[in-house]
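Protein Record: Sequence and Backbone Structure Tokens
======================================================

Structure line: whole-number tokens from a learned vocabulary of local backbone shapes, matched to residues.

Purpose: to set a sequence beside its fold so the mapping can be learned.

___
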Amino acid sequence: MMVDIFDEPDVHCEPNALVGNFGWFLQGLLATLAFLCLIIKRFCEPKYDRRPWKVWFFDTSKQGMGSLLMHSANLVLAGQIQGDPCTWYMIHFLMDSSLGLLLIFFGIRFSQHVARVKNWESFNFGEYGKPESIRIWFIQCGLYLSLLCCVKIVITLLISLDIWRVITKFIMSPFTDPRTELTIVMLIIPLFINALMFWVTDDILMHRSRHRVGLLRRIKIQYHKVQQSGRLDDTPISDDDELLNLDETSTILRSSGVQGF
């Protein structure tokens, strides 16, 4: 049963367009491209701080399950409101990608603060113990999905406000062909926004790096390179190798009580 919140005469998409054969094809293509984005992100991480595949899978699987939850909720909610389902799906998606992402960020940071105060190590996102524990992953996944449910409730309440009456009249008005509108709503716009959103969310969910490479550290790396430039073998040294060498030196100096690194 559809909910008649607003009187929406301009309906471009069919009521079941989002879950039709063409709609499912676009959703599968979008999911594949989004997954590839996360793989590319892993290889863009510095070698000295690149996550093992198991840790990467734990991090990205939480995001994948969360994205599936939000996407499914948007499909259901867009179909329950009378009017153009493509328009309502786009509104929910844009709200999830903006306000929703902000709420997720603060929710995770708050949970990590509570975890530090209460010494609940299982609540530290991105840390799964040594060796990695599936139980800790399950706890973090449950916490993340619960947070997403709260975010979705807040966004749904906001979308029920009358201000959306005006927005729904022009947000997708330039597109009158149903398949064109469906492709824009389910693939083109979500592809670029999801790529950015997945990248940012992965940074939020992963363990915060212990290697903070600031300006002073980069200067020390370059200075260390100059010192090593007189070696006989003339073997080039990468920034990643220099960071590892510098970290070893820093550890020795700190253990000796020497400051400066």
